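Bug report

Summary: structure tokens for tRNA(Ile)-lysidine synthase differ between web form and batch submission.
Environment: batch mode, default settings.
Steps: 1) Submit the sequence below via batch. 2) Compare with the web form result.

Sequence submitted:
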Amino acid sequence: MNLSARLLESLAPWRNAPAWHIALSGGLDSTVLLHLLAGLAQREALPPLSAIHIHHGLQAAADAWPAHCRELCAGLSVPLQVEYVQVAPGASLERAARDARYAALAARLAPGDVVLTAQHRDDQAETLLFRLLRGAGVQGLSAMPVSRGLGAGCLVRPLLNCSRAELLAYAHEQQLSWVEDPSNADERFSRNYLRRQVLPPLLKRWPQALVSLSRSAAHLSEAGQLLDELAQQDVAAAETSNEFAWLALPSLALPALRDLSEARQRNALRYWLRPLTSMPDSEHWAGWQALRDAAVDAAPVWRLAAGELRRSDQRLWWLAGDWLRSPDVPKITIQSGQSVVLPGNGSVRIDGALPAGAWQLDYRRAGDQFQVLGRGHRDLKRLFNELRVPVFVRDRLPLMRLDGRVVAIANLPGLQGASDGSWQLNWQPPTSDQGLS
């Protein structure tokens, strides 16, 4: 089966997409992808086709590439959009450039749109070797999936079953021209070193190495899917209801996890944490054991890249964003029906009619007491213990004071306002959303 037929077959699941966008660098791989698709569009009913060139501005040679891509697309009657991006400085220039590129592509996608990238079998093998040398687990060694979500649409890699040699032969046959990225010869970059120094001797000894490595990546991808299915079951068993669901924070019941083997615990937590934070390395998982096995009356914390996992009353809670910062004391007066934004702590609202008086929003202070109907005055610390209020919530739970006395505690049944229900203090807590998922 020739390249055009194989490409069309691999894209069959996305034939009804609203549009196909080709990520066009101007290099060999994306040039061949563009040429193949432009030819298919002349004889097949395909979604509207266009190209996107991302200009990073990282090297002088790249300044000529947009003009090359415009000329190439004009000759094939394919619309082109050039996007200029800034690459954030950091430890890994490769990662920063990739992140900027995918962010720009995602911004261009309407709901259901598909962006097509030209990674091939050789790239898949390099990715597998690179991640193997970094000690990745099953999910990491699955290498690059054929498709994944991106922005409002999805990213598809339709050439993963093709070798670079096949693409090069096609380009020569069709007399295509393409740009060469000078950085591809810089062996300080790990992938270039693998491509230029490691793979050639491997292929000399094992000519089918690329096919074998690609096949291994597919097997690992299938194993990863099975692990995810097991994790879904384990996480579902731990996502039980709780009386503090109004916190709207990701949480799990610890006993349900404790019943699992160590390996299943880690698998379930990796799956649950994946959209929330980057995964810790193997040594850092000691933090999970310390969190799990701490004394019942302890308040352990497991700090991760994008937030913290806390334990309170046999439940795990994920905290990030404003939850990791102490809120400022509001010193705000409030009136009936008024909604007030609390700095770094969500918002509160009085539902009902407040009696006359100097009402003030506040947080708890040392020695605070609360008069509980039929039980007299109770120390706030002991009261929170009785109600099993998570420790991390206690110092940011909004209170109402009247003449300095605590007369309402937001969101706690029976304590959040007048005993006759004529008014209540309701709190909308902050979220743990970091915008990283």
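Above is the batch result. After comparison, the two runs are identical; trailing whitespace caused the diff. The chain has 14 helices and 19 strands. The longest strand covers residues 49-55.
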